[in-house]
Structure formats: C-alpha cells, structure tokens
From TrEMBL:
GO MF: malate synthase activity
Domain Malate synthase TIM barrel: start-end pairs: 165-409
UniProt GO cellular component terms: peroxisomal matrix
Similarity annotation: Belongs to the malate synthase family.
Official protein name in the record: Malate synthase
One biological process term in Gene Ontology: tricarboxylic acid cycle
Residues of the Malate synthase C-terminal domain: 416-531
Active site, UniProt feature: 169 (proton acceptor), 450 (proton donor)
Location of this chain's protein in the cell: Peroxisome
EC main group: transferase
Involved pathway(s): Carbohydrate metabolism; glyoxylate cycle; (S)-malate from isocitrate: step 2/2
Keywords on record: Glyoxylate bypass, Peroxisome, Transferase, Tricarboxylic acid cycle
Length: 543
C-alpha cells in the first residue's frame, strides 16, 4: 500500500513566497517527490561532503592524488561502455549555456546551436524567485508556451526548425535550498533542481522526442556519481519511467575527479552522456585543493591557458576516456561577448574564439560551449569544417598516455603582476556585486563571467598572499598589500556604479578571502544568506 502523501509531507515546509506560479511548479505531488528524495539521499550527500574535507586535510599535509588502486579493474577493463547517445544527443557540436530567465531561454532556444544547457548553477544566483521562475520558464518552453512581450518587443520561439535539445544543470552537491525544508533541514539544491525539473517535465520531454537530460557539476569522486545514479533510478522507478531514460553529462571541473573519469562514467553508465571540460572551475579546483602547497602557485590568470601542461593533459585524458567508453567528450566555454564599438578589438576576440574551437575539434572533442549567440556561428563553422560526422567517438586517442604527474605538472610560464592582481580583484568584486543583486552571469571586460571565473580570481589572490609571492615589479604580496589594492579597486568600482550598488558589501566579504587566511569552500556558499528571503514556514501539505 502506497504511503499517504499527508504522512510524507509531515515536517515539510516552504519558506519562500508562494503564489499561483509557484504552485504550478511546486505542487503538493512535487513536494512529496522532493521529500522522498531528501530522506533517501541527504544522509549520503552529507557524508560525501565530509569525505571532501578529509581528503582536503590529506592534501594540506602534502599528499598528492593518484589513480585509485581499488578501482584499477574498472579502468583496465574493456568489457564495459556507457550508454549509446540518446535522442537529441547524438550531435552536440555547439551548445549554448546560460541562466534560466525567460528572455535567455527564448534567445538560447532560437540560436543556431544543437543543445541549450539551462543553468541553475554557476550562471544563476539562487534566489527563490530565480530558481522557481527558472523552473517555470523551462516548463513553459518545453510546452512551447514561453512567448512574452517586454515593452514593444515580442519574444517568441522560432517555428521554422527543430529547437535545440534542452539540458538542465542542477546545483552542485554542496549547495542547499533554504526555502524548502524537510524534517527541519534544508533540501539539497541539487535534489531540488533535479526533482522539480524531472517530476514536472520528464514524461513531456519523452513525448516530444528527447528526454530528461542533465549536466552534473562540481563532483569530486565516483562515489558522488554513484549517488546521482541512485537518485536517477529512484526517480525513474517512482514515475514508472524505464531506467536509462535520464542522461547526464558530468563536468570534470575538479582535480580530484580528473583521477576518476573512468569510474564516474562507470557509475553512471546506463545514464551517461559523457564528460565535459569545465576549464575555469578546474583551474579553481587545482588552486583550492593545493592552496597550502607552494609548488602549485600559478601566475596571472591570463597565463593559465588550455595549452599549459596540466590543462593539456586533462583534456587529452578526458577525450581518450570518453571515446573508449563510447560517450561524448565535450569541450569548454567561449566566454567572449561581441565588442560592438571597437571592430579591431572584436575581430581579435573572435579570432581567439576560432583558435580555441579549432584546438578543441582537432583534439577530438565532440562539441563545444558558447556563452553568446553571436559566437555560435564561429563555433559551428569550425566544427562543421573539421567534424563532418555527428561526433568523433571513433577518435580513440590511443596515442595518449597520461600519468598522475602529467595531471599535476604545474610548469606554467608567466609571472604574477600588479595588473594581474588588480584584474582578479575587479573580476571578483564585479561578479560578487552582481550576485548579491541576484544576477549570476555578469559581463565584465567583454567576457561573460560566472561563479567559476570569480572563484579563480579569489583563489589566486588567496594563494599569492598565503605564499608571499613576489610580483614582476618586485613587490611582495602580503595581507596588507592585498587589502590595500582591494580597497582601491572597490572604491573605483563603487564610484562608477549606480546608486544602490552592492560593492561595499562585496568588498566586505572579499576582504576575508584574499589575505591567505580564511578560505571559504565556495564563494556562493559564503554569500548565500545575503540573497535568501526566508519567510514564515508554510506546510507543504497545504500546497
């Protein structure tokens, strides 16, 4: 006999504003599903997050990671593969990414791309309104009822061709959704985002010829992938959907996950749609995990390109691993946005995009990311020229032999400069100011910056202060020097900003993160309470 929904919803509360739109997404039935997910998996999630801290303590003592001896049999076996590509995921040569506001959803789906990654994570600030409205916008887009008018302009989905395949990115395991509690605990942001999207849309997506597809961020081990696989199996069983209908692409954006690529695909194999090179988060992870180790100090961010040894090794290993297992190896982000008032600068920026995409397709990637529709044409032209097939799964890269030392090779030419310090401060402050206003994707210096690039900036500043690095100008980076430059940059930005900006608050939080002392695991976790609007609880049974 099935459990009574009222019993399941006992001690389940909503602490965010409720209205008719909210209830369309967060129905009583959806709340039951979320509560089941939380009770089934939150204990494992918290244990895996604690495991990250144990591993961090080992790294702080000088331990260096290696491929796991206990999973050698998985890596060395040729007897298993991931799932064959699902409908709508065979050809993914250009994917556009961005937040889930209604205008972005329409513009992304109208772009000349193959898929759209709708992002609840790094390019979204997780206010209650952003998360709920994002779910509503995707619900409506899937049903082709997302059109709206803003002022004199109509925003409508195109009808002249098949729309790009939709992929949703949920928040990482570390984030919580404080506006929905179960038994007095906030639900995981991952389970909230996944649960609402899957429960409301999975069957409709299958009817329309695709399926419930996801990007999974910030994982650090195959055990975290196993947890996702368990979530997927329960979810599909719950609604009577065949297992394997869900597909998920994992972002390899942490140094620890780079040592477990085979194992991550293996854990998700019936649900796997490949891996992706999350380049900026990967650099952030390298700095974060080895922040106490002076051998891992990196130069100015601009010097850490995709061709430096540790990044090149990571890309090659990812492509080889994916293609050996029959799944897609997706390339990274082109974050540039058009420079409309400077044709020469714009031409140079677009040439860099072309060069980056050419590197990716020649390496064997099956597709790539862009942040702006204007870049889709460049990426498409490069991949259409050099990848006439739907993908390159047949490019096995058997010439590649990557060792642990290759993944940890920090031989990166370049210097730390005062200009580089100031640029990191500008990016960190600029992004944090936007995030505190509820904006998760901020254009800065003609690049679309999200949480990952702000994390690189923040972590480099911490690292340089911690190890008292000497700049190219001969200045030692100390706590006092870092704070002096931060206050100078914060004042310059605040003076130019409109009234009511959040630069003062951003600077207050940033000061705690650039001195080589305190270090928050994630900036977004550090700032989250500033954008929550927790109201008096409403029992989910009353939805």
């Amino acid at each position: 006999m099935a459990a009574n929904p009222s019993d399941i919803l006992r001690d389940v509360n909503v602490l965010g504003p409720l209205n008719d739109k909210t209830r369309k997404i967060l129905s009583k039935d959806a709340a039951v599903f979320l509560a089941l997910l939380h009770r089934a998996f939150n204990g494992t999630r918290k244990a895996l997050l604690q495991r990250r801290m144990v591993r961090q303590a080992e790294l702080d003592k000088g331990y260096l990671p290696d491929f796991l001896p206990e999973t050698r049999h998985i890596r060395e076996s040729d007897s298993w593969k991931g799932a064959p590509p699902a409908p709508g995921l065979v050809d993914r040569r250009v994917e556009i990414t961005g937040p889930t506001d209604r205008k972005m959803v329409i513009n992304a789906l109208n772009s000349d791309v193959w898929t759209y990654m709708a992002d609840f994570e790094d390019s979204s600030a997780p206010t209650w309104d952003n998360m709920i409205n994002g779910q509503l916008n995707l619900y409506d887009a899937i049903r082709r009822q997302v059109d709206f008018k803003q002022g004199e302009k109509d925003y409508k989905l195109r009808t002249d061709r098949t729309l790009p395949t939709l992929i949703a990115r949920a928040r990482g395991w570390h984030l919580e959704e404080k506006h929905f509690t179960v038994d007095g605990e906030p639900i995981s942001g991952s389970l909230f985002d996944f649960g609402l999207y899957f429960f409301n849309n999975a069957e409709e997506l299958v009817k329309r010829g695709t399926g419930p597809y996801f990007y999974l961020p910030k994982m650090e081990s195959h055990l975290e992938a196993r947890l996702w696989n368990d979530v997927f199996n329960l979810a599909q069983d719950y609604i009577g959907m065949p297992r394997g209908t869900i597909r998920a692409t994992v972002l390899i954006e942490t140094i620890m996950a780079a040592f477990e690529m085979d194992e991550i695909i293996y854990e998700l194999r019936d649900h796997s749609s490949g891996l992706n090179c999350g380049r900026w988060d990967y650099i952030f992870s390298v700095i974060k995990r080895f922040r106490q180790n002076p051998n891992f100090v990196l130069p100015d961010r601009a010097s850490v390109t995709m061709t430096v040894p540790f990044m090149d090794a990571y890309v090659k290993l990812l492509i080889k691993t994916c293609h050996r297992r029959g799944v897609h190896a997706m390339g990274g982000m082109a974050a540039q946005i058009p420079i409309k008032n400077d044709p020469a600068a714009n031409d140079a920026a677009m040439a860099n995009v072309r060069s980056d995409k050419l590197r990716e397709v020649r390496a064997g990637h099956d597709g790539t990311w862009v942040a702006h529709p204007a870049l889709a044409g460049i990426a498409s032209e490069v991949f259409n020229t050099y990848m006439p097939t739907p993908n390159q799964l047949f490019v096995r890269r058997e010439d590649v032999h990557i060792t642990a030392n290759d993944l940890l090779n920090m031989n990166v030419p370049g210097k730390v400069t005062e200009a580089g310090i100031r640029k990191n401060l500008q990016i960190g402050l600029g992004y944090m100011e936007g995030w505190l206003r509820g904006v998760g994707c901020v254009p800065l210096n003609y690049l679309m910056e999200d949480a990952a690039t702000a994390e690189v900036s923040r972590s480099q500043l911490w690292q340089w202060s911690r190890h008292n690095v000497e700049t190219a100008e001969g200045k030692k980076v100390t706590k006092d020097y870092s704070l002096q430059l931060l206050r100078e940059e914060a004042k310059l930005l605040a003076d130019k900003a409109p009234k009511g900006s959040k630069y003062g608050l951003a600077a207050k939080y940033f000061e705690s993160q650039v001195t080589g002392e305190d270090y928050a695991e994630f900036l977004t976790s550090l700032l989250y309470n500033e954008i929550t609007n927790v109201e008096s609880p409403v029992a989910a049974a009353k939805l």
